[in-house]
């Protein structure tokens, strides 16, 4: 899952990014509104953390422009504790949730997890697909109750498929949500990670939908595997 952090305070930006990366997310970052707006307008994100008080272009304007252009990714805004009007303006502009400064990073992580779950139709912190279970809070996966030993890329792949289980996900979509903007993207790497993941969870759970991509199912579909 890929997240954009837009915060002009360098220390806070770094703390948020490091905490999110430890949770298995792929992170892009921006330090002003113009750069943040551009990234959110041109790259696909599973969620955005957006500070209201940004240089160049304020967070409310960034959000309003995204929504006017049809960008629907969930957005968590960061507001000052004594500015209740910012919270109202942010929600009215299209924000999905907010956190007031100063805050505990754990609260931001919890709210981001919840936003992503709700956006993909999951109510619980544990996502289940047949014998597979994904603990989004602990960033761990298991099959039939046994913990899976996954590399960071394998976890990202499985996490995205679990959040979008039953849907056909293209290789391009996987690449866009597994790697940051600076990564040298190659669709062949997705096939490699899918192959490795299949060896750990079984071949029948990740279906290959020829010409379209992959689908995670409970293993009872007749779609062709490859």
From TrEMBL:
Residues 2-116 form the Response regulatory domain. Keywords: DNA-binding, Phosphoprotein. It holds the Pfam family Trans_reg_C. Residues 124-218 bind DNA. SMART domains: REC, Trans_reg_C. It comes from the Bacteria. This is Response regulator transcription factor. It comes from Pseudohoeflea coraliihabitans.
């Amino acid at each position: 899952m890929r997240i954009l952090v837009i915060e002009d305070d360098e220390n806070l930006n770094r703390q948020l990014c490091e905490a999110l990366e430890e949770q298995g997310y792929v992170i892009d970052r921006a330090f002003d509104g113009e750069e943040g707006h551009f990234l959110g307008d041109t790259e696909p994100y599973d969620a955005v953390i957006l500070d209201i008080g940004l240089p160049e272009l304020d967070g409310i304007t960034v959000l309003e422009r995204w929504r006017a252009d049809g960008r629907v990714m969930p957005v968590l805004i960061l507001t000052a504790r004594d500015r209740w009007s910012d919270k109202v303006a942010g929600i009215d502009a299209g924000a999905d949730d907010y956190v007031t400064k100063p805050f505990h990073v754990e609260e931001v992580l919890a709210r981001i997890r919840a936003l992503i779950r709700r956006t993909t139709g999951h109510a619980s912190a544990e996502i289940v697909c047949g014998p597979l279970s994904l603990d989004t809070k602990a960033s761990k996966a298991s099959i039939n109750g046994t913990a899976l030993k996954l590399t960071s890329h394998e976890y990202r792949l499985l996490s995205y498929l679990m959040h979008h289980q039953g849907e056909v996900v293209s290789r391009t979509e996987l690449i866009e949500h597994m790697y940051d903007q600076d990564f040298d993207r190659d669709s062949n790497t997705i096939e490699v990670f899918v192959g490795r993941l299949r060896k750990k969870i079984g071949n029948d759970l990740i279906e290959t939908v020829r010409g379209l991509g992959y689908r995670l199912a409970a293993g009872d579909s007749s779609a062709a595997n490859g």
